[in-house]
Amino acid sequence: MTSSRPLTLRATAILLVMMVVTVLAPSASAQLTKADIDQLKIQAQQEGWTFTVTENDATQYSLDQLCGFKVPDILPSDVRYDPMASTSAMMLPSTFDWRVEAGGLPPIRNQGGCGSCWAFATVGPLECNIKIKDGLVVNLSEQYLVSCNANGYGCAGGWWEHRMHQLAPDPCGGTGAVLEADFPYQARDAACGCPYPHEYTIDNWGYIGQPFTTPTVNQLKQAIMQYGPISVAVSVNNAFQAYGGGIFNGCENGAVNHAVVLVGWDDTQGPGGVWFMRNSWGTGWGEVGYMRMPYNCSYIGYNATYINYRGSVWFSSNNTLSPAPADVTFTAQTALDAASWNWNFGDGQSSTLQNPTHTYSAPGCYDVTVSIQTATGQFASTEERCVMVYADTLKASTTQGLPGNPVSVDISLRNYVPVTEVTLPLNWEGAVGLVLDSVSTAGLRTSHLSPQQMHYDLQRAAYKLTVSGSQAEIAPGSGPVLRLWYTVPSGSTGGSNQVTVAGYVNGTQSYQPVIATDNGTFQPTSSAGAVNICKGGDVNFDGRGPDLTDLSYLIGYLVIGTPQPPYLPAANVDGAGQVDISDLSRLIGYLLGTGAQLTCK
Fold this sequence. Notes:
- By secondary structure, this protein is α+β, with helices and mostly antiparallel strands.
- It has 4 domains: 83-308, Cysteine proteinases (Cathepsin B, Chain A); 313-390, Immunoglobulins (Immunoglobulin-like, Sandwich), CATH 2.60.40.10; 393-533, Immunoglobulin-like, CATH 2.60.40; 537-601, Dockerin domain (Type 1 dockerin domain).
- Helix content is 17%, strand content 31%.
- The strands form 7 sheets. Strands 2, 3, 4, 5, 7, 8, 9 and 10 form an 8-stranded mixed sheet that branches.
- Strand 28 and strand 29 (509-511) form a beta hairpin.
- The longest helix has 18 residues, at 117-134.
- The chain is elongated, with a radius of gyration of 35 Å.
């Protein structure tokens, strides 16, 4: 039964208030009205926003329509992860923008009232990479991802679909990107009308850092430089939707709901640096479709991913890490009609063959470039550190020591390729009985690395130096990488004790000298050093004296003017502090059995 009684005055008032609130309050389920925009402008003044608020293409839709980034519960097991750990903040430029570096990027797209931001943020990095690597502006189909994916993604939302640009097939078994002309965007869940031509593919893709996290600013920067523009998620609110230009600071701490592309950064703008963010809401939104967003604002960078696009011409090599001299065969491919080929092997040599073999005679790290000439222009592909040729060595120093005193031995590395890790098995077994006190990298070319002890006993030990996080790799060069501090036992009577860098086995564990690089690992050659203990009268410091050869050496030095002894304390046999005729007299007396004992001072 329905009552026909009129509403009470109080009920009527409550209903009117609810209607007013519903009309005036910005809602995620409705477009922004002029009243909503005016209210945001008031909020901007109150909170000191550093950007303008305007009606634009995006304010014609609700956030529910625009923001369709949906985080799945689980991820495929074969996804790659790149920690972006080899570049430090000191090596990153303060500003970088692919729009400048590439001479412009493809036009900004407009997803309209379909929550397909995930598809646009998937396509965006590939379109940008094609422009960067091939110099071509192409328009790829987002509708293909919306309509032909196998995960049920669509205008109601989705996740990254880079897999469809690599290996994941559509319903007709096709893989790779489709041109916009072959499946135009419709801003709706249209049927998949495959098969379609697949014009572009990626080699692989992966997460920056780990999934379900926001990488550090430096990790994101390195990924942008290394892989080109990257796909990221962000938390979007009405202020973001009405953004008209400037540095956005209406940051949101709500759920991550939108997918965009980062193309660069500038450390000098904003409170501490800004990202250059590429959106898919048309050129009427923001700064011609872009936004300047501060680092760490609105969870920008969440679930960041990169793609690896090889370009219209690509190549492989059969040997990327080898001792010198190294023979490397290169194999190049292209889907274009190449009129000519040109190789730059990185060592000053070149070739015009499509699949050349090149000999690298000198050790080093080489970037390789292949370019082709076609009727439509020149296309090139470069692989940094494509070939590493090594002749790297480890060497222990030789030094002198006195009984009862400390002595140091340096382990030096001569490396021709960038090193990310070095394993150093050490042995100092000998009659001198050296006692290892400590190891250090202070003041050495590895001062930024900490030695990790892998094994230790009285006469041998193994240490590892590993580059991690933002630490710089060990650049090509020569010099000490680890210093060993020993104590010479007070009872030592002279002689020599070798210090070697050589592999050994402890139980079931083997420790070998190994150098790790981006291209793999190898065993360097090594040479031993020694700690020579001073013995009075051992003038030539051969560890056997005193004998007649030492007497001859001292006579030559004091009388004839031959080179001074290799270690003067051994010739200062009377302990007076300088080497002179009295030392010669003391040595003669000792050898004849008529003189006092010899010193070493």
